UniProtKB/TrEMBL annotation:
GO biological process, one term: methylation
Name of the protein in its database record: Class I SAM-dependent methyltransferase
Gene3D superfamilies, A to Z: CAC2371-like domains, Vaccinia Virus protein VP39
InterPro entries: Methyltransf_25, SAM-dependent_MTases_sf
Region spans: Disordered: 233-283
SUPFAM superfamilies reported in the protein's UniProt record: S-adenosyl-L-methionine-dependent methyltransferases (SSF53335)
Length: 283
C-alpha cells in the first residue's frame, strides 16, 4: 500500500469536481448573496479557492477576485478551466499582499479549519485584518466543532463511496476520528481504482472550533460577528436557496460566519484589569 499525506482529489482537480459537483453553483451564489446582504465592495479575496469554481462565479457576478491556494495542481486547473480571477499561491495562516487591500475575504468549504493550532488561527485572522479595508467582511463556511465535540465518534463504521469517472471506477473508504485533545477531526481515507493504479491511503484533519471560541478569536483580532449560524448554506440539508435568511442556531454540522473588521485596532487595546482607584493595586 502506497501512503500519501496529500489528497487524491486535490492532486487531481478534474476528479475533485467530478466527485463533488456543484452544477447550481450554490457555494458561489451563497457567498455572493452574503456579500450583497452586507454591502461589501467589489474586491474579494477567496482563500483556499481549490479548483476556482466559486472564485469564477464571484468574478462573473461582477466582483474583482483574487483567489489563493497552496495546491499547485488546483491553481493550474483553476487558471485553465475557470479564468477571470487572479490566481496566486498563499498560505492561509500567513499571507501578505503588501499594500493591496480587499473589501471582503471569503473562505469556503472548511478551508479555515486547516489552521490546526491557535498560532495558525491567530496568523490567519491577523492576515485577514491587515488585508481588509476598514469595515471589510470576513465570510466563512466550515464544519461546526460543537456538533462533533459534543457527540460520540462521528461514525461507527467507515463510510464507503463509489463513483465512475472517464470509465474508471473509484472506491473510497473513509473513517473519521475525533481527537479531543488537539480539537481535530482526523480523517483516514483509502482509495482504490480499477485502472491498475496502486491503492492510496491519505491522512488529513480539520480544526474543530466551538462557536463561542470562534467569537472570542474574532473579537480579540478586531472583528464584530454579524452572523454565526448552522444554516442554511451550500452544504446543508436542505441546501441554501436564494432569499433564504440566516438561521439563529448553531447546532448543526456546518457553521456559517459573517464578521466585519472594526475600526478599533486590537493592538492598542489592553486586557489588563484596571487598578484599584483607592490603592492603585491590581486586583
Amino acid at each position: 500500500m502506497r501512503h500519501r499525506t496529500g489528497n487524491l482529489l486535490t492532486d487531481n482537480p478534474e476528479l475533485y469536481e467530478a466527485r463533488f459537483p456543484d452544477p447550481e453553483h450554490l457555494a458561489g451564489r451563497w457567498a455572493q448573496d452574503i456579500l450583497c446582504r452586507h454591502g461589501a465592495g467589489p474586491t474579494v479575496l477567496d482563500l483556499g479557492c481549490g479548483t476556482g469554481r466559486d472564485a469564477a462565479w464571484l468574478h462573473h457576478a461582477g466582483r474583482r477576485v483574487t483567489a489563493a491556494d497552496l495546491s499547485a495542481p488546483m491553481l493550474a486547473h483553476a487558471r485553465a478551466r475557470h479564468p477571470g480571477p487572479a490566481y496566486v499561491t498563499a498560505d492561509l495562516s500567513r499571507f501578505d499582499f503588501g499594500q493591496r487591500v480587499f473589501d471582503a475575504v471569503v473562505c469556503l468549504d472548511s478551508s479555515l479549519l486547516y489552521c490546526h493550532t491557535n498560532e495558525q488561527l491567530d496568523g490567519f485572522l491577523r492576515s485577514c485584518r491587515r488585508t481588509l479595508v476598514p469595515g471589510g467582511l470576513l465570510v466563512a463556511e466550515m464544519r461546526n466543532g460543537a456538533y462533533f465535540l459534543g457527540r460520540d465518534e462521528p461514525a461507527t463504521a467507515p463510510a464507503v463511496s463509489r463513483f465512475t469517472w472517464h470509465g474508471t471506477a473509484y472506491r473510497s473508504t473513509t473513517a473519521l476520528r475525533v481527537d479531543r485533545a488537539a480539537q481535530l477531526l482526523r480523517r483516514t481515507r483509502s482509495w482504490t481504482a480499477d485502472d491498475g493504479s496502486p491503492p492510496v491511503v491519505e491522512h488529513s484533519a480539520w480544526r474543530l472550533l466551538l462557536p463561542q471560541e470562534l467569537r472570542h478569536f474574532l473579537t480579540v483580532h478586531g472583528f464584530d460577528v454579524l452572523a454565526l449560524h448552522d444554516g442554511p448554506g451550500p452544504r446543508t440539508e436542505p441546501a441554501w436557496q436564494p432569499g433564504a435568511g440566516p438561521g439563529d442556531t448553531a447546532d448543526g454540522d456546518r457553521l456559517h460566519l459573517v464578521a466585519r473588521k472594526t475600526t478599533v485596532d486590537p493592538a492598542r487595546t489592553s486586557a489588563a484589569e484596571p487598578a484599584n482607584p483607592a490603592t492603585g493595586e491590581q486586583p
